[in-house]
Design brief:
6-stranded mixed beta sheet, alpha/beta, 11 helices, globular
Length: about 260
C-alpha cells in the first residue's frame, strides 16, 4: 500500500507542476474507504481524496488512470461547475438528487455524466503522455454501475476506446526534464502524516499528504468525484422506497383491523 500511496503522490506532483505551476494539491488518503474525488476548498486550494481500499488491488496503469481522471476534473474546473449545477437544481444532498422530477433528473444527470466522460478522455490523454495504455488503465471501470452522476462503466470504457485514436497525448517533456528533485521531495512527503498530528486550523501548504479516517457522511464543500457507487445508490433507493411505502402499508393495516 505504501508503494501505491507514493505513486499517487508522484503523479500528483507531476500534474501539479505541469498544470498548476507547482501549486500543491492536498492529497487525503482515507482509511477504510473506497471514495475517490476532487474538490476546491474555501481558500481556493485543490484537494484530492483517495480511499485506500479503492486503490489496494489496482495495477500501476489503473492507478495512473484513476489519478489522471481526477486531475481531469480539476483542470477542467468540474468542482466549480458541479457547484453551479447543484445550485441551479437546488441540490444539497444525494436525497435531493433522488427527489428531482423526471425531466430535471434527466437533465441534471446528463450534465453530471458528461463531466465524467470529459474527465475520462482527459485522463486518457494524460495516460498517452505518460507512455501508458489508457484502455488498460481504465479497465477497472468495467465494474462500475450507472448512477445519477456516473455513466455505466462499460459505456465509459467504450467511449475511451472509440476516442483513443483521435486523442493527442499530453506533452510532459518539459515537466519530466525538471522533475527529479521534486519527485524526491514527494518521497520525503510520502511519510504520510496522521491527521490527528496536524493543528486543527493548519493551512501549511508544505503538507502534501495526510492519512485520515472520515465518517460515512462527510461534508467536504465543493466536491466533485466518484463518491457514489452502485451498491450505495441501491441502498439509498431502497431506503427511499421503504420510506414512501411504509406509511401506506401502515394505514392499510390499521383499516383492516
Amino acid at each position: 500500500m505504501a508503494d501505491h500511496s507514493l505513486e499517487v503522490l508522484k503523479l500528483s506532483v507531476l500534474f501539479d507542476n505541469h498544470f498548476f505551476n507547482g501549486a500543491p494539491t492536498q492529497v487525503h488518503f482515507i482509511q477504510n474507504s473506497t471514495m475517490v474525488g476532487t474538490w476546491v476548498d474555501e481558500q481556493g486550494a485543490a484537494n484530492l481524496s483517495v480511499g485506500l481500499d479503492r486503490i489496494q488491488f489496482m495495477s500501476s496503469d489503473q492507478l495512473a488512470f484513476l489519478i489522471a481522471h481526477e486531475y481531469g476534473h480539476l483542470v477542467l474546473k468540474h468542482p466549480q461547475k458541479t457547484q453551479e449545477i447543484q445550485q441551479q437544481y437546488g441540490i444539497v444532498s444525494t436525497f435531493d438528487e433522488f427527489m428531482l422530477s423526471f425531466d430535471s433528473k434527466r437533465d441534471y444527470s446528463k450534465l453530471m455524466r458528461d463531466m465524467e466522460l470529459q474527465a475520462d478522455l482527459f485522463g486518457a490523454k494524460l495516460m498517452l503522455g505518460l507512455g501508458r495504455d489508457p484502455v488498460s488503465g481504465a479497465s477497472f471501470l468495467l465494474g462500475e454501475t450507472k448512477s445519477i452522476q456516473h455513466p455505466e462503466g462499460t459505456l465509459r470504457l467504450a467511449k475511451i476506446k472509440a476516442g483513443e485514436s483521435n486523442l493527442i497525448a499530453e506533452d510532459f517533456s518539459d515537466t519530466f526534464s525538471d522533475l527529479a528533485m521534486q519527485l524526491s521531495d514527494a518521497e520525503v512527503l510520502a511519510a504520510l502524516v496522521p491527521s490527528d498530528t496536524l493543528p486543527v486550523d493548519s493551512n501549511d501548504s508544505t503538507v502534501k499528504a495526510v492519512v485520515e479516517s472520515w465518517p460515512v457522511a462527510v461534508d467536504v464543500g465543493d466536491y466533485a468525484g466518484d463518491t457514489l457507487y452502485g451498491f450505495e445508490v441501491s441502498v439509498l433507493l431502497t431506503v427511499a422506497v421503504l420510506a414512501c411505502a411504509l406509511p401506506r402499508w401502515w394505514r392499510r393495516t390499521r383499516v383492516g383491523q
